[in-house]
């Protein structure tokens, strides 16, 4: 354990102090050290977006983040999106609009969409597509995901 | 109907949006070991010697196994038992697994795997169809098949081909090539096994837990009773998780050797080596046509690059010749097919299994014939459409068929006929058809293809079925069908699926079989249960069982719970079972097992594109897709499948390609293997046509695979519409378009594509009598 | 999962200290900011440092302000996403913002820095592969091997410069400040690059890019057009940055810089000069584009057919000139 370091950051509102390897990515720390397996991995190289989490509110790829880079930061994972049993409007919309097929990219899409709507409550279809363009999906053709983001935006805006 | 056809939420969606769904790599058990496979760096080589000592000496390594520990051969098809979980004599592609390490963590396993010393004698790899057809410089890749590196050939002839061609006013030949591509599921394959008390359990991201179960039994020499395979929630399959895989067998063996849980999750690069993707297929087609567009005869030849192992390849090869006739009434038809072995990752089934390639060729070939004859390409198709309730020349039974309706609707919605004509803008139209489940099982038997058990007690309704939800929504379909029968909501139904230990057999999520087959099995069981409940409810209410109306959780005036209690008081423990086996549909000839299905779905696509004549870059503006679904069990899910199919079809048409430099995979990463991002995806307009299939559950047919098929030729047709050049090879990359435009400018044939089809010594064709059913008059 | 090999991660207090550490552990230590380029390369073992020296936390690398004389100073650790949101940059240096907005994908731009994009490693599809792949295919000159796999005839590395932002920075006469253990120096961005896929930069490995400076550019119009297969994620397989000054309908100054076509951003000095003194006539633009494209020789080491990439250079330049001239 001689090469381990202590990392401090906040995950879904809970402050964490974890003994980690400096060469373990945030993805590994979340999934393997903290048991937060809702964050997925698809390529391990920053090419697919499946491991997206929010770091201080911005979508970033946990497979590329080293623990030192998130020191003291606030991280949101998919487990932190719902309030207790109450789904986030985006989650509701994803369920209703059929935006979930295999569900493997879903956490990344939801978090990315959350950041989008926080910056722009009523994005156009093109803006939604742009925002999601770093997150690959192989099931939906992005169509239902886009509709779900639109639906959630409409509901959240009113 | 109360729940069938309603846009209800999928039963697993809530777990998936909260991140609580556990996929295979999310599972971890106490004291789990981690496995890493060592793979061959050579496309073709003999293994001379392996030294495991350095690997075993690494601290944290618990076990190292090789092919000597797993000597039994297997393969998904009984006729292609040509794989070892770990090869010990010969490696046949870059990535072929040769050893497996179990260690305390994945990093240690990887480090140890790297320390295994393997001495190879490198052989000359076979890298193309042409090379595979000629005499190899080294020994053939496998010790079966042949001549040369041919795996399997077939030749079938239906009707009087010569007479058909003699009758034709116009005969045309074309050659096409469909590049190979891969599934690229977002989730990498992953498996974890435990071995406790002589019982082996494997949780795996598989589409076919039953076939994996059988393979484990064979390879590890365990009785079927000692094995349980659980298909975990799936991060995408598309056919890529339909074979038994090395990593699955390795973790089973390592769990037995170490007595601890063992997990193996492939890296993304390894997923490209596991592959089993779309076969590259070279195709030649010759068709005779009357001047009015009526087909008189068709001769279709295919050559498939199968890669290093058999996989589903023999079936794939037959599929390249089977479904041409399910859209067009072809009075005389000959098919000759060959699959070859090459030293590349093994090909297998991908969405549409063996049919997107010939569909691409067939649709474009018909476009060209229409152009030759000065006919409208849509009219030429219509003139040859099959009719409902007919039998094709190759003995395929057509029942419900919405070809005319989907054509009408897609043309109307897209205004294809009145499209704007301008250089650089084009629209293309194509149709296709797909199976609702293979009519025959993969291994010969007369057992049900799908079985379902429903348990009812004070705890509610639980449905047990081997069907595997790979994201397509099969759990939702089963829950919806049972809920409809019992007057409940789909969310009221508890499901145990994809588990060979707890649920009765379903053959798996392939060939678009689940809604039709598992759906019918579930319906069978649910109706039996409904009858039991209706009987006691009627007795209590003093009416006839047939008068009981169910819905909103009620049986007549009784609540579902009250009815359950009455039923249990009367019958004791309650469960009902249902099963489905398709009718005997195979024709009277060898090779007739591929193609029959209890029903066929139909899809028609129109694609609208802009293509820049200066760059060859295509922008897809919109896709209209009309699909004969029979009936939508859940219209939201059906639409999702259509959109996903269109997406994947566009990917195959425009960019997806499992490319090689000789035998070296060129782009085994998600950056280099190109798949459409959200900004590359056009709007999709989905049109659903319900033809109410007589044998489908509530009339339903498939939607998972069919909608992909017409998209690929429609894109190429649109390119021709826009620029007057034919791209007879997918993917249609901009450089190919520019080469075709260059050829056109030089006065050469305005096309890009293969120049010729090799001379293949197909066997003498089997002449098959045509079915005694009146076909459309010529 | 593909994982990183062990390394230590150091967090220096300033740029000079960072440089001093890297200099001290010569060849063992590497600088890392956002890590979007480096981390995948480490996972693929294209570089094997035992020490990473983080710099993205350094406040001195986080400036983003107009200079008194009307230029712009951008700290090297400013993310690409931050650049795309900056109104001053968008107003006066639109080509740079355009380029930054086209780098990779949104989540990468939230992490990747402008300094990182300037210094992004050259790319080649024989090199940007995992260790196992490179072992199977044969190691290349740039890492672990002794021959170039693309053009084995001579020992030269042809890996491709893949920065979207560098060509625009060059076109707009930007300078970079580099901090070394002994102090800082300011150099034109253009001078940072050289024609060698391995030693593609003149910057010393220990030198920290601390900021990028755009001189005042009143009257300059700029553009960047990128070629890639998809609308997101992909690196450039060609690109053209153009900067123009147009007065009274005539071009009085012009720059054309190409990306993705050689081991360094290619400055098409002569081609650009042909525009000067003329109006934006499509025929002239086509001629100039043709001239700019002529010497470019892409090789078969990036996406799509190199012959097509070659013919696309002319199109890229044409588009970029017209876009800048709008």
Q: Please count the helical segments of chain A.
A: 5
Label the overall shape of chain C.
globular
The major beta sheet of chain A can be summarized as:
5 strands, mixed
Approximate shape of chain A: globular
The SSE order of chain A reads: EEHEEEHHHH
The number of distinct β-strands of chain C equals 12
Q: What CATH first level of the largest domain in chain A would be assigned?
A: Alpha Beta
Oligomer: heterotrimer
Number of helices of chain C: 12
Proportion of strand residues of chain C: 15-25%
Q: Can you list the strand order of the major beta sheet of chain C? A: 4-5-8-6-7
Uncertain regions spanning at least 5 consecutive residues of chain A: none
Mean pLDDT of chain A: 97
- The CATH architecture name of the largest domain in chain A reads Roll
Strand content of chain A: 15-25%
In terms of per-residue confidence, which ranges of chain C show pLDDT below 50 for 5 or more consecutive residues?
Answer: none
Overall average residue pLDDT of chain C: 97
What does this structure look like?
The complex is a heterotrimer of chains A (about 160), B (about 775) and C (about 325). By secondary structure, chain A is α+β, with helices and mostly antiparallel strands. Chain A has helices at about 25-35, 90-95, 105-120, 125-130, 145-155; strands at about 5-10, 15-20, 50-55, 60, 75. The radius of gyration of chain A is 16 Å and the shape is globular. Chain B is α+β, with helices and mostly antiparallel strands and about 775 residues long. Chain B folds into three domains: about 30-125 and about 185-235 and about 240-275, Aldehyde Oxidoreductase, domain 3 (Alpha-Beta Complex); about 280-440 and about 585-770, Aldehyde Oxidoreductase, domain 4 (2-Layer Sandwich); about 445-580, Aldehyde oxidase/xanthine dehydrogenase, molybdopterin binding domain (Aldehyde Oxidoreductase, domain 4), CATH 3.30.365.10. Chain B has 18 helices and 34 strands. In chain B, a hairpin with a 5-residue loop joins strand 13 (about 280-290) and strand 14 (about 295-305). Chain C is an alpha+beta fold and about 325 residues long. Chain C has helices at about 15-25, 40-45, 80-85, 85-90, 95-100, 105-110, 115-120, 130-135, 165-170, 270-275, 280-295, 305-325; strands at about 10, 30, 50-55, 65, 70-75, 175-180, 185-190, 210-215, 220-225, 240-245, 250-260, 265. The termini of chain C are far apart. The interface of B and C includes residues 616, 664, 679 and 735 of B.
């Amino acid at each position: 354990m001689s090469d381990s370091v202590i990392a401090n950051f906040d995950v879904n509102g809970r402050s964490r102090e974890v003994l980690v390897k400096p060469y373990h990515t945030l993805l590994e720390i979340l999934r393997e050290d903290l048991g937060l397996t809702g964050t997925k991995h698809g390529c391990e190289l920053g090419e697919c977006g499946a491991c997206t989490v929010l770091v201080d509110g911005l979508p970033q790829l946990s497979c590329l983040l080293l623990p030192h880079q998130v020191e003291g930061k606030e991280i949101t994972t998919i487990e932190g999106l719902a309030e207790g049993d109450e789904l986030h409007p985006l989650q509701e919309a994803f369920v209703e609009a059929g935006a979930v097929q295999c569900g493997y990219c879903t956490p990344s899409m939801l978090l990315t969409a959350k950041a989008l709507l926080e910056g722009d409550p009523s994005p156009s279809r093109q803006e939604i597509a742009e925002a999601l363009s770093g997150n690959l999906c192989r099931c939906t053709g992005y169509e239902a995901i886009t509709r779900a983001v639109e639906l959630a935006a409409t509901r959240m805006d009113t | 109907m109360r729940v069938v056809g309603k846009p209800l939420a999928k039963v697993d969606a809530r777990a998936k949006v909260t991140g609580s769904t556990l996929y295979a790599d999310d599972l971890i058990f106490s004291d789990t070991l981690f496995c890493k496979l060592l793979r061959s760096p050579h496309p073709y080589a003999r293994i001379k010697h392996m030294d495991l000592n350095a690997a075993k000496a690494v601290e944290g390594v618990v076990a190292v196994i090789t092919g000597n520990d797993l000597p039994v051969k297997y393969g998904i098809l009984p006729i292609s038992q040509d794989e070892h979980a770990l090869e010990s004599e010969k490696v046949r592609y870059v990535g072929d697994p040769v050893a497996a390490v179990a260690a305390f963590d994945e990093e240690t396993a990887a480090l140890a795997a790297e320390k295994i010393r393997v001495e190879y004698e490198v052989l000359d790899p076979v890298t193309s169809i042409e090379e595979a057809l000629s005499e190899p410089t080294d020994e053939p890749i496998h010790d079966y098949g042949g001549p040369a590196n041919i795996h399997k050939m077939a030749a079938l002839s239906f009707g009087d081909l010569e007479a058909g061609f003699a009758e034709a006013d116009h005969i045309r030949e074309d050659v096409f090539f469909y590049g190979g591509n891969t599934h690229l599921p977002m989730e990498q394959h992953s498996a974890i096994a435990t071995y406790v008390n002589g019982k082996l359990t494997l949780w795996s991201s598989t589409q076919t837990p039953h076939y994996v179960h059988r393979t484990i039994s064979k390879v590890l020499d365990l009785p079927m009773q000692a094995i349980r395979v659980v298909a975990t929630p799936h991060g995408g399959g598309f056919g890529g998780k339909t074979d038994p895989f090395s990593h699955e067998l390795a973790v089973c063996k390592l769990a037995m050797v170490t007595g601890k849980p063992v997990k193996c999750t492939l890296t993304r690069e390894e997923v490209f080596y596991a592959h089993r993707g779309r076969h590259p297929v070279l195709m030649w087609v010759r068709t005779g046509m009357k001047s009015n567009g009526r087909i008189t005869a068709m001769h279709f030849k295919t050559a498939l690059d199968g890669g290093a192992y058999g996989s589903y390849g023999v079936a794939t090869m037959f599929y390249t010749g089977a479904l041409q006739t399910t859209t067009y009434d072809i009075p005389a038809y000959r098919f000759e097919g060959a699959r070859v072995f090459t030293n590349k990752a093994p090909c297998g089934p991908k969405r549409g299994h063996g049919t997107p390639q010939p569909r691409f060729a067939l649709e474009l070939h018909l476009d060209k014939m229409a152009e030759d004859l000065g006919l409208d390409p849509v009219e030429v198709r219509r003139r040859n459409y099959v009719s409902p309730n007919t039998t094709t020349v190759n003995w395929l039974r057509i029942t419900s068929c919405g070809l005319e309706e989907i054509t009408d609707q897609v043309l109307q919605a897209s205004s294809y006929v009145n499209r704007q004509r301008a250089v650089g803008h084009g629209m293309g139209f194509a149709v296709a058809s797909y199976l609702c489940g293979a009519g025959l099982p993969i291994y010969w038997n007369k057992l049900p293809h799908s079985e379902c058990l429903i348990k009812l007690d004070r705890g509610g309704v639980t449905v047990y079925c081997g069907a595997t939800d790979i994201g397509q929504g099969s759990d939702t379909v089963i829950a919806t069908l049972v809920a409809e029968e019992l007057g409940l909501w789909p969310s009221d139904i508890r499901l145990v699926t994809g588990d060979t230990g707890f649920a009765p057999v379903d053959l798996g999520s392939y060939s678009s079989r689940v809604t039709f087959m598992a759906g019918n099995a579930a319906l069978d069981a649910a109706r039996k249960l409904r009858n039991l409940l209706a009987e006691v409810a009627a007795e209590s209410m003093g009416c006839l069982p047939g008068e009981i109306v169910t819905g909103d959780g009620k049986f007549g005036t009784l609540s579902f719970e009250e009815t359950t209690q009455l039923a249990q008081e009367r019958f004791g423990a309650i469960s009902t079972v249902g099963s489905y086996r398709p009718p005997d549909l195979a024709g009277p000839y060898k090779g007739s097992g591929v193609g029959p299905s209890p029903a066929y779905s139909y899809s028609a696509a129109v694609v609208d594109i802009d293509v820049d004549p200066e760059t060859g870059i295509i922008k897809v503006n919109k896709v209209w897709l009309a699909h004969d679904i029979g009936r939508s069990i859940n219209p939201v899910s059906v639409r999702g499948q259509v959109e996903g199919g269109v997406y994947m079809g566009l990917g195959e048409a425009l960019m997806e390609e499992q490319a090689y430099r000789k035998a070296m995979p060129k782009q085994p990463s998600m950056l280099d293997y190109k798949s459409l991002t959200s900004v590359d995806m056009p709007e999709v307009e989905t049109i659903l046509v319900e033809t109410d299939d007589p044998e489908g559950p509530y009339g339903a047919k498939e939607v998972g695979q069919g909608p992909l098929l017409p998209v690929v030729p429609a894109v190429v047709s649109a390119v021709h519409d826009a620029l007057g050049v034919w791209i007879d090879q997918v993917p249609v990359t901009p450089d190919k378009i520019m080469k075709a435009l260059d050829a056109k400018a030089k006065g050469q044939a305005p096309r890009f594509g293969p120049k010729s089809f090799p001379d293949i010594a197909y066997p003498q064709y089997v002449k098959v009598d045509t079915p005694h059913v009146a076909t459309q008059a010529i | 999962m593909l994982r990183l090999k062990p390394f230590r991660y150091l967090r220096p207090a300033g740029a000079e200290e960072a440089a001093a550490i890297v200099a001290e552990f010569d060849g063992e230590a590497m600088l890392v900011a956002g890590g979007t380029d480096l981390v995948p390369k480490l996972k693929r073992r294209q570089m094997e440092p035992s020490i990473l020296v983080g710099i993205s936390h350094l406040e001195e690398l986080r400036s983003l302000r107009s200079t008194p004389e009307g230029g712009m100073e951008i700290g090297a650790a400013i993310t690409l996403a931050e650049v795309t949101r900056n109104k001053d940059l968008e107003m006066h240096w639109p080509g740079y913002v355009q380029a930054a907005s086209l780098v990779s994908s949104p989540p990468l731009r939230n992490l990747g820095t402008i300094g990182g994009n300037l210094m992004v490693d050259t790319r080649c599809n024989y090199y940007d592969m995992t260790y196992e792949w490179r072992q199977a295919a044969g190691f290349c000159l740039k890492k672990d091997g002794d021959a170039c796999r693309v053009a084995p005839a001579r020992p030269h590395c042809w890996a491709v410069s893949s920065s979207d932002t560098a060509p625009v920075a060059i076109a707009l006469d930007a300078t970079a400040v580099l901090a070394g253990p002994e102090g800082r120096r300011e150099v034109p961005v253009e001078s940072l690059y050289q024609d060698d896929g391995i030693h593609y930069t003149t910057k010393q490995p220990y030198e920290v890019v601390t900021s990028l400076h755009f001189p005042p550019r009143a009257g300059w119009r700029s553009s960047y057009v990128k070629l890639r297969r998809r609308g997101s994620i992909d690196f450039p397989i060609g690109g053209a940055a153009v900067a123009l000054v147009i007065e009274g309908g005539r071009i009085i100054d012009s720059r054309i810089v190409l990306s993705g076509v050689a081991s360094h951003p290619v400055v098409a000095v002569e081609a650009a000069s042909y525009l000067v003194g003329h109006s934006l006539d499509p025929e002239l633009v086509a001629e100039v584009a043709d001239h700019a494209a002529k010497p470019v020789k892409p090789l078969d080491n990036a996406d799509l057919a190199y012959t097509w990439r070659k013919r696309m250079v002319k199109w890229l330049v044409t588009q970029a000139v017209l876009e800048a001239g709008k």
